[in-house]
Amino acid sequence: MNSVQNDSQHLMPQETEDQQKDRALVQSKKSLASRMRKALMGMIALVLFAFFVLLTGWVMFTGYVLMASESEPEASDAIVVVTGGAGRLERAIELLRENKGKKLLISGVHYQNSDHTLIARFDLSEKEINCCVDIDREALNTVANATQTALWADRNNFSSLIIVTSAYHMPRTMLEMRRAAPHITFHGDVVAVPNPESWLVRLTDWNNLTLLSKEYGKLLAAIVHGTTERLLSKRTHQHL
After folding, report:
1. CA separation for the pair 107, 81 (Å, rounded)
2. Distance from CA of residue 102 to its chain's centroid?
3. According to the model, what pLDDT value does residue 181 have?
4. Residue 192 in contact with residue 85, Cβ under 8 Å?
């Protein structure tokens, strides 16, 4: 039996060195192609997963904006309104007159708007302006709003604040406020859309979709920026 096997082995053609190299090259190419396919499939799966997460977040953010409603906040030391949207100043002044806070900071007022402009537009008296209303003209964006708010609160020894802004702007505003002043307690007061059903209709409008998408993108950027800062700070402390 062994002699038969030996004879058959002798009869099989032996591979030349070049043939062995060619076969090894083919196998190597097949292996490389297989790894590339797996890597490509992994990248596609990762992209689809990231897209799903971002889309889910956008839907949740949009749902929050659509369903947000004004509620009576608990009284705090003071009130801060971030300018830039309809109804914000009116709501903040209403809270001030309801004694929800001792003072009001209007953050992000354009330099061309004088105290007299505010008095005329929002029916504020000079007495209210002098005793209870402070105006911040330094802040040009949400991060600066938070920074100026933190400085103002520290100067006045305030430990709790009501933040007034629009629903689409509230998540990012509260994120920046807490980052700038973690020692202060913040209560959000949303200036909601007067008629929620109108948002469902206007959601098909390109301008509204653009606004929501931009604000969602800014919120994601703020989250990433804050996370990166914390990681870098933690790494720095570990090396010290």
Report:
1. 6
2. 30
3. 94
4. no
Q: What is the amino acid identity at position 113?
A: N
* The pLDDT value given to residue 103: 94
Lookup: tokens for 123: 């029916």
Q: pTM of the full predicted structure?
A: 0.76
Q: Which residue has the tokens 């797996």?
A: 38
Residues 68, 95: Cα–Cα separation, whole Å:
18
> What are the mean pLDDT values of the chain's consecutive 10-residue runs (240 residues total)?
50 60 70 82 91 92 83 91 88 92 91 71 76 89 94 96 94 94 94 66 75 92 79 56
3-class secondary structure per residue, the chain: CHHHHHHHHHHCCCCCHHHHHHHHHHHHHHHHHHHHHHHHHHHHHHHHHHHHHHHHHHHHHHHHHHHCCCCCCCCCCEEEEECCCCCHHHHHHHHHHCCCCCEEEEECCCCCCCHHHHHHHHCCCHHHHHHHEEEECCCCCHHHHHHHHHHHHHHCCCCEEEEEEECCCHHHHHHHHHHHCCCCEEEEEEECCCCHHHHHHHCCCHHHHHHHHHHHHHHHHHHHHHHHHHHHHHHHHHHC
> Which amino acid belongs to residue 100?
K
